[in-house]
Structures are given as C-alpha cells and as structure tokens.
Amino acid sequence: MPVPNFLRRRFVILISGQGSNMQAIVQACQSERCPAEVLAVISSRPQSSGLDWAADQGIATHVVAHAEFASRTAFDATLADVIDRYSPDYVLLAGFMRVLTPGFVEKYAGRLVNIHPSLLPAFPGMHTHAQALAKGVQVHGCTVHFVTPVLDHGPIIAQGVVPVEQADTPESLAERVLAIEHIVYPQVATWLAEGRVHLMPDQRVQVDAIFSRLFVSESLL
Ligand code: GRF
C-alpha cells in the first residue's frame, strides 16, 4: 500500500550536473521502494541537464548559481533560504560540486549527506578515478557519508566497490563506479527514509537491522 505523503520523509537534492544519482533517488521514491518525497532539486549551475529531468517529473527546481555570488558565505545563505522553504528532513548532495562553508554544514548537521566517487578516506577531492589509476589500486568505488566541515570526510553510511581493470581509463572506471553509485545512494536514501540510520556519539554510523552496508559489483564475486 502506498505510504501517504504526510508520513514520507522529505528530501531536497542538490546537484551541479547531469544529476544521474538524483534521478536514481527520485525513481526509488516514485517506485514506492523509498518512503520519501523529493520536494525540490536545486542546482549550482543553470545549465545542469538534471534540472529539466526533475521538472518533467513535477518536482520544483531552482538554480542558485554560484557564479553570481561574491563569497561562499553569501552563496550558502541563499542556498539555505531556498532549502528551508521545503523543511526537508535530509539534504542530499548528488554530484554537487561546491565546497560548503562550516556554518552551512553545522546548520544541517546529521541531515546533510553526500556521495563521493571513491572509497573514502582514499582519494578525497577531484579526479578520483585518475588518482585511483595512478596509485594502482585494484578496487575503487563510492562512499555515501554524512557531511562534515572537512571536505569528503565524514561518517560513512555505505560504500560500493568495483574492480579496477588493467585497461581502464578514468572514463571507463568512472562509468563502472557510477553504476554502483546508482545502487548505493537510492538504498541509503531508503534507509534514511525508513529512519534506520543513526549517527552515533563516536561519529560512526549504525543502520538498524541491516547486516551489510557494503555493495559489491557482481564481477568481484
Ligand atoms: C558522480 O560520480 C558523483 O559521485 C560525482 O559526480 C558524478 C556525477 O554525478 N560527484 P551525477 O550524475 O550528477 O549524479
């Protein structure tokens, strides 16, 4: 039976580009698998193709263009104003390419979640696939984590692992990682919506009644 809207958790999703993770989360909510509603999608770039897709789904869309702000603080203040119109339970960063100020992160502490395309704490920052190839690691992947003021560093909710192949380029590896991102992030969104995810005092995460928070590509099994 569908979950009535008043019982659904409220998500706002922040993107900067194609928003394929956002689409995977929206589809999980539409399919009733995830008892949440995506109330708004906000992009830091006006040309994000994900915005059109979200609008086609009937989701409110906004652009808060970072290029139009003189400082990070001013950008974050406007972003928070738009987010707060929707009173979200969680703010999900999905390919959102801006570094947020500590004040913004504190405001949403415990409610701000990100996906990063590496197995953190390895390879924070940009160009993670090239970094992984340069180091010769044999596995790579993605991490969904709570956001802290330190970039790409925060309590880990779940990770997805894929193999690195000899012939990989950053592009081929990115494609393999993105495929597992689309499994991991909707699943974490579902756990959040179900109220299963707890940030513990030791800054580790506990997910009620879930045996494994590691998602492994079939080719590794
Ligand atoms: C993904 O690898 C995401 O983790 C990274 O940007 C890539 C594109 O994401 N930050 P999306 O298609 O915009 O969700």
Description:
With 221 residues, the chain is an alpha/beta fold. It has 2 domains: 1-108, Formyl transferase, N-terminal domain (Rossmann fold); 115-221, 3-Layer(aba) Sandwich (Rossmann fold), CATH 3.40.50. It contains 6 helices and 10 strands. The protein has helices at residues 20-30, 49-56, 72-84, 102-107, 128-135, 170-193, and strands spanning 9-15, 36-43, 60-63, 90-93, 112-116, 139-146, 156-163, 197-199, 205-207, 214-216. Strands 3-2-1-4-5-6-7-10 form an 8-stranded mixed β-sheet, sandwiched between helices. Strands 8-9 form a two-stranded antiparallel ribbon. Helix 1 links the parallel strand 1 and strand 2. Helix 1 runs parallel beside helix 6 (170-193) and helix 5 crosses helix 6.
Tell me the CATH topology of the largest domain.
Rossmann fold
Distance between the ends: 35 Å
Provide the structure class: alpha/beta
Task: Please identify which CATH superfamily of the largest domain we are dealing with.
Answer: Formyl transferase, N-terminal domain
SSE order, as H and E? Answer: EHEHEHEHEHEEHEEE
Shape: globular
**At the first level of CATH, what is the class of the largest domain?**
Alpha Beta
* Mean pLDDT, all residues: 96
Radius of gyration of CA atoms, rounded to a whole number:
17 Å
Please count the helical segments. Answer: 6
Reading side by side through the largest sheet, how are the strands ordered?
3-2-1-4-5-6-7-10
The figure for the number of domains is 2
Overall CATH architecture of the largest domain? 3-Layer(aba) Sandwich
The biggest sheet amounts to: 8 strands, mixed
Helix content: 25-40%
Which ligands does the model contain, each kind named once? 5-O-phosphono-beta-D-ribofuranosylamine
| Beta-strand residue percentage | 15-25%
**Which spans of ≥5 residues are poorly predicted at pLDDT below 50?**
none
State the total count of DSSP E strands: 10
